[in-house]
């Protein structure tokens, strides 16, 4: 029994170390808003979107091949102006003229997810812009790239499910079929938080009564992206960003730090919940062992 308790203490220590590391990563990401460069696999390479029959070419911080027009001006070259987690914002290298004669720039907000070295997918987190042809999911702002680097990336994004665009490395003829996970929303949510909810199964906890030999098994509900709204735990993600939830806006408001704090709490709650499940499972086994010892 001593070994069981000792193992449980080690497990607790590992879980808490993981929690603090993830919290550190969350707040570090919140500070590093300026673009630090695209994923290494994407840099200096071309990627084919077979559905759109389009090819995107990435540099260290550049994007070409995504093309549209506004009032006769073609915009097809972009530069990364900021990223946080796997959300990247690209600003157009060219501008268009507004009715008052000032220059306006387009910004693309991409949430990019790696599938393998030869396949990625991304979501454009924006509504369709009626000023573009063809209509694309992009936002227009009255400031250039050098100003945009000082703006939080998610300020250019809208929390919408645009449908995933699948990318295949141009030097590879065929890749296995890709099934994209739903977009991680809101934009300020760390991808790890969404992934944790998606991959952690609902563990079965077996308990045994103190008398008799019957046992019952119950499954604790953990929210996943595939569950219906009735099955999911209450959604508290709305307390961040522009939620306007009474009593919370003064804490989170529109700030990235407030949203990161909420992310931290959500992730901490999920891990602590898993820890409690494991602890209860071990505790139940311990109680059964004790019960067997007293009946001998």
Protein architecture, described:
The protein has 296 residues and is of the alpha+beta class. It has 2 domains: 2-31 and 191-294, no CATH class; 45-169, no CATH class. The chain is 28% helix and 27% strand. It contains 4 helices and 14 strands. A hairpin with a 6-residue loop joins strand 13 (204-208) and strand 14. The model is unreliable at 1-8, 14-32, 218-257 and 281-293 (pLDDT under 50).
In short:
This protein is an alpha+beta fold.
Helical residue percent band: 25-40%
Number of domains: 2
**Helix and strand element order:** HEEEEEEEEEEEHEHEEH
N/C terminus separation: 17 Å
Side-by-side strand order of the widest sheet: 1-2-3-4-5-7-8-12
Which class best fits the helix and strand makeup? Answer: alpha+beta
Strand fraction band?
A: 25-35%
Provide tags for this entry.
globular, 296 residues, 28% helix, single chain, alpha+beta, disordered N terminus, two-stranded antiparallel sheet
List the helices and strands and how they pair.
Layout (H helix, E strand, L loop, with lengths): L1 H30 L13 E5 L4 E5 L3 E9 L2 E12 L2 E6 L3 E2 L5 E14 L2 E6 L3 E2 L6 E2 L1 E3 L3 H4 L16 E5 L21 H9 L4 E5 L6 E5 L36 H39 L2
Antiparallel strand pairs: 1-2, 1-12, 2-3, 3-4, 4-5, 5-7, 6-7, 7-8, 7-11, 8-12, 9-10, 13-14
Helix pairs in contact: 1-4, 3-4
């Amino acid at each position: 029994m001593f070994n069981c308790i000792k193992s449980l203490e080690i497990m607790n220590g590992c879980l808490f170390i993981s929690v603090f590391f993830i919290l550190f990563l969350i707040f570090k990401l919140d500070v590093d808003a300026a673009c630090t460069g695209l994923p290494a696999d994407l840099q200096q390479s071309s990627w084919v979107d077979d559905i759109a029959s389009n090819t995107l070419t990435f540099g260290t911080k550049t994007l070409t091949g995504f093309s549209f027009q506004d009032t006769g001006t073609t915009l097809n070259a972009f530069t990364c102006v900021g990223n946080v987690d796997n959300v990247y914002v690209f600003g157009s290298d060219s501008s268009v003229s507004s009715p008052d004669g000032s220059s306006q720039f387009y910004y693309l907000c991409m949430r990019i997810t790696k599938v393998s070295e030869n396949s990625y997918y991304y979501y454009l987190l924006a509504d369709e812009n009626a000023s573009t042809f063809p209509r694309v999911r992009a936002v227009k702002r009255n400031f250039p790239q050098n100003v945009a680097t000082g703006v939080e990336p998610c300020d250019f994004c809208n929390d919408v499910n645009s449908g995933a665009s699948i990318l295949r490395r141009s030097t590879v003829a065929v890749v296995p079929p890709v099934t994209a996970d739903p977009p991680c929303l809101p934009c300020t949510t760390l991808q790890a938080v969404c992934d944790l909810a998606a991959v952690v199964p609902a563990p079965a906890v077996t308990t045994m009564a103190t008398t008799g030999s019957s046992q019952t098994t119950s499954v604790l509900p953990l929210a996943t992206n595939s569950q219906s709204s009735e099955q999911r735990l209450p959604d508290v993600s709305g307390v961040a960003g522009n939620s306007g939830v009474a009593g919370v806006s003064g804490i989170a408001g529109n700030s990235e730090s407030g949203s990161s704090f909420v992310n931290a709490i959500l992730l901490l709650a999920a891990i602590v919940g898993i820890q409690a499940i494991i602890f209860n499972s071990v505790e139940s086994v311990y109680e059964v062992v004790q019960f067997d010892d007293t009946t001998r």
